[in-house]
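Posting for a labmate who doesn't have an account.
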Amino acid sequence: MSAISPTSNERLRRRTAHACETCRIRKTRCDGRSPCKSCVESQEVCKYREAPALPKPKGDIVLETLLKLQAEVAALSQKLDAATSYRPVQDVDSPGSTSHTAAIASMTSVASHDLDAIVPLRHLSATEMFLSWEIFDGVPAIREQFKSVYQLESQRPPMPIFSSTAFPSISLETWSNSVDSFGQNVNFWYPALHEARLQGLWDSLASFTLDGCLALLVVALGQACMHVEDRFSRQGSRRRSNPESDLGTLCFERAYSMIHNAVSEVSITAMLCLFYTAIYFSYLQRPLQTDFFLNITAHRCVVMLHYPDPTMPITDYETLRRIFWCCFILESDLVVELDKVPQSGCAQMESQIALPSKFDTHSTRDTSDLSTLYLLACISIRRLLNRIHKLLYSKESVTRMQSVPDMNLIAELAHQLDEWRDVLPPYLQFELSTQPAQNDHQGFLRQRYFAAKSVIYRPVFNYVVTMNLHGIQPPGIGDAVASAEQCLDAAYLHMTNLRGFTHTVVIDTWICALSMTGVALVLYIAWQTPSLKQKLQEKIGVDRIRNALWELKLKIDDMMLTAPEISPSVSQCVSIIEATRDVIH
């Protein structure tokens, strides 16, 4: 029997959950009927309000509130980042005006969808991976001459040891020219050295100190850039030049003999010395040594940023932060091809480091602002490229998309790439064509754009090729072929837009050689795939492809010969590009 009997239940006070309006106003009991007993007796109109919605469970209310708070925090963070990550001058006609600030806020947010943009270890997008395809089984001219890039580079003789204690003789005019070249090039692409510090290095040029080492590295890099500019015009066409001066080499060898002091010291000057040593090894086309010094520099940056010195001047802290981002860009470029090389860890914490802010790297504020804009553009496209590799080319991602590529993911990444281009400030905006860019910086970023687009659509290209190799015609293969064309179009434009920009030649010759070899191999694979070959014949034609590959071979050859010594892996790339051209007919 129930604890409450029917008899007792009847004695309980009965109340309706919803009283009519008349009873509510009179504050009389309402029985909930329509009309209710009270309104019938008083001959009043009986009306009820609309029934209220059922209340949400408390768990739903908490979750909804939490999501709203998260959205508000995210919006506030974006506003704070836009306000603090870059604060250029506000002159109306200045390249750092408010409109540019807004553009940079948009540009840096384009590549921030993941917390950390990391190229996965042992990813499957390196150029070497192409040569494992069965389509190259019958092409010994390409596959059999190939050796591992790491094997070739690790067998190179070491750098010569500088035995003399004498410093190279450098006149004030030579110093001034070298500093100007360094500032217009290296300190524009990777603006980490403050103008005041740069101008003060002259007094330390012939000293056995880290400032002396830094001064020698500035001269060496300035001389390297002058040499490259003497060989190539602004848009990269070949020019006649005089033989290279030995001054840059002598300065680097002298600085290199002192670099052990930078390895053992924890200071901003030591960080700059290590970083510029890595840059010079890029010019020498020695990727393993470049990676070694970038790794040391980036690791030291991470430690110093984790344990900040409260007495550090703001200019030194900004220098440290900029070195970190430069290492992030350059190391990410290298590990795309050296996929098994351990990384420094800077990519794992890049989401925790503030972006570069106002910094006087040049004598005029406009130039300083432009160089910061350029650095931020390079950071954002590199972050996007890292995310592309993470989402499309990790082993897990490749396994997941072996059956059918994730077209929604690919479309989203392509949208983000176009979004990045759209928010570039006017000085860096480029046309999607083969026409010469208005400046070298536009041209360099255009190369990055086409490289990224080709990599985004490559999984669809791989899928179409695989289906053709096995004679399979799955549903929707026509749409896949159309998307694979996007990969081919971007690869061809990437190849034909290659120019001898100073940034490309000094920093990216080795990376560029591997990347362009990948383009050549993609074109060969497409030529062996009937559905894609037809598209190539209709759009480009065999003669234009062969001519473009020959031009590419000459360009890479020119870039390779710019360095004081020849890289065996770059030389191998030139041979593979030539062999690929020979088998396309």
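Reply:
Got it, the structure tokens are right above this. The domain at 16-52 is CATH 4.10.240.10 (CD2-Gal4).
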